[in-house]
Each structure stands twice: as structure tokens, then as C-alpha cells.
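Bumping with the actual sequence this time:
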Amino acid sequence: MRIAVDIDNVLADLHTRFLELVNKDFGTHYKYDDVTEWNTWDCLPVFKEMPNRAAAKALAWRYFDLAWLSPEKMPQVPGAWMAHFLLWSMRDTPVIDLVTSRRWESAPDVIRWLKLNDLTGYFRALVIMDAFSGRSKAALDYDLFIDDNPHLAKDIEAYPQKKLLLFDQPWNQHIDTGGESNVVRLPSWSALVVAPVYYLSLEGSK
């Protein structure tokens, strides 16, 4: 089995650090649950009040970059290390890659964060995709994805032999994971640790 694990808001708690910086600079009091859209510039008033959407998007990306500039201040998503260790130590060890869409400038900070959080020994490769390329992860050669992106949940419908564990976040609550879908909601890393056979089985795919 080939597994692609996302980084932002799956391993690294990016939005917690992002909101900390935004609140500090703008005097706002946004909470994690206020981020109800995949694109933060479409839901947080401080960005929506910008002159146009392009400016709002540019400002939001600036704060994403700022969040990664201090990887030592970037928290880890609870349970991420233990779950990753579990995946790596399974009897039939799967191939695990970290697959992330981002701006290239933040790549060195991501690598530093992985080292700081003792995660460098538990994956085969770090795969970085251009965040603005428009290419979907669903097309990559993996059997199972662990990701929070609601757009990936839509894209993977075209690949019924694959499975997405949709990491539960406020911005993907509108995704229906019931019925015969090949998308299964992962409530937390702890859930994977408790029931790895259920979540990692590909039998639930169409």
C-alpha cells in the first residue's frame, strides 16, 4: 500500500499559528472554528474587507508564509507523531510519503519542522507540489490519502480504487462521507491509532 500524508493541518497545526499571527497584527480574536472555508480569505472578515479577492488571497498567503518562518513555533496536530510511528511500524509496512501543496519558499522551513518534531525517520519521501499548479493529488500514484482538503474529496471520486481519509476540520464539514463513498472521515489521529485496520482498509473503496 502506498500512502500520501498531507502536512498542513494534518501533521502541522498551521491554522493555529496562522490565526495567532493574524490576531496579533490586526487586533482580532478569530478562533479555529471560525475558519469554515478552505480558502481563509473567503471567510475571515479581515481578508474579505480587502479591496479585492486577489489582494485578500495574497495577504492570506503572506501569513501562511510567516507562520512557517518560525517552524519551532508551529504546533503539531495532537497524536500525529504516534500515529505516524504506528503506520511505519506495521507488520506489512506501507510506503509512506508526505505530499504537500505549497509555495516553494516554505519548503526549507517544513523540512526543519519535520526534524524538530522527530518525524524525518517515518516516511520515504517528501513530495512538494506547486500550490498554484492546479494539479490534484488524486492523480498521483497512491492508494490512500490522509488529507484535510475538501477539493481532494471531490477529485478522488474519479478514482474509485483509491481512498481518502478526510482529516476532520471545520472547513470540510460539508463533505458527505456516507454511503458508498471512497471518502472516510478521520476524526483524529487517535482514531487511527485505535482502529488502524478499519481506516487503512481499501475494501471500503468503490
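The C-alpha cells above came from a reply further down the thread. The two ends are 17 Å apart (CA to CA).
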